[in-house]
Amino acid sequence: MALQRHHKILIGSFTSIIIIFMITSSVMLYFIFVKQTTDFNNLNKKITELQTETNTKINDISESLLQTNQLISSEVGSLTQQLTLLKASVGEDFSGIIDYSIPAVVTIKTDYGQGTGFIIDEEGYVVTNAHVLADNQGYLATSIIAITSERETKNAQFVGFDSTLDIAVLKIQGTYEKLELGNSNDVQIGEKVITIGNPLGLQFSVTQGIVSAVHRQGGNGLNAYIQIDAALNPGNSGGPLIDTDGKVIGINNFKIGGGENLGFALESNYIKQAVNEIAQKNLNQTLIN
User: What is residue 67's predicted lDDT score, i.e. its pLDDT?
Assistant: First the structure.
C-alpha cells in the first residue's frame, strides 16, 4: 500500500531530526575531544614544568649542601689550625706548629754544601740565604737541589739574590703549603721561637729558644737582625725562625763563634723587601703581599 502524503512528511521529519541529532552529537563530541586533548596537553605541560622546577630546586639544594659542606670543612680546618696555634702560644708545646710548618721547609743541597730554605708561595718559590748557594769566592753553585719534607728531590731554579741582605729566591716545580711572614716590628724580647733546619746534615731538626734582642747590627751594618738563644749550626742557614703564631719572623743567618747560643736571624720585614725586589726584577711580579 502506497504511503500517504502525511505519512511521508512524518517519516521525512523524523529522518531530519535523526540527521540533525547525529550532526549535533558529532559536533559536540568533536568539541569534547578537542577540549580533552587541550586539557591533556596543558596537563602534560604543567607536569613537565613541575618536573623542571623540581629538578632545578633539587640541583640548587645539592649545590647549597655542597657549598655548606665545603664551608664547614674549611671552618673546621681553620679552627683546628687556630686551636693548634693557641695551644702553642699559651703553653710549651710547639708540636702543632712544627707539624704545620715542616711541609713548607726544604733542605737545600749544592755542589758546595747544604743549608735550608722555606716556601713562601704555593707555586714553589723558596727563600734561603744567598751564601748557601755559593762557594767562598762567591761563585754560584752549578747544581741546586731541594729536598721536601716528603723526601722528594727537586731541581731548583735560581731566580735571583740580594747580596747585601744575603737572601736568594729559588723555584721548584709543584704546588706546596707555604709559610706566612709576620711583622718583625712586633717581635718582643723574651718571646718563644723555634728554628727548623738541617744542622750538620740532620734534616728537619727543630730547636727552641727565646728572642734575646731585636734590631741587632749585622756584618752589613744594618740593624736588621733578631738575636736568639736557640741553637744554630752549619746547615741551619736559610731556615725559618717561627713565633708562637706560626709566622716566620726571621731567616736564620749566622751565629757568633766562640760563644754559646748567639744566633742571628734577618728580620722578616727585610726578607719581604728583598724577596719582592728580586721577584719584581726577575719575574715582574710580587711574591709576598
Answer: 66
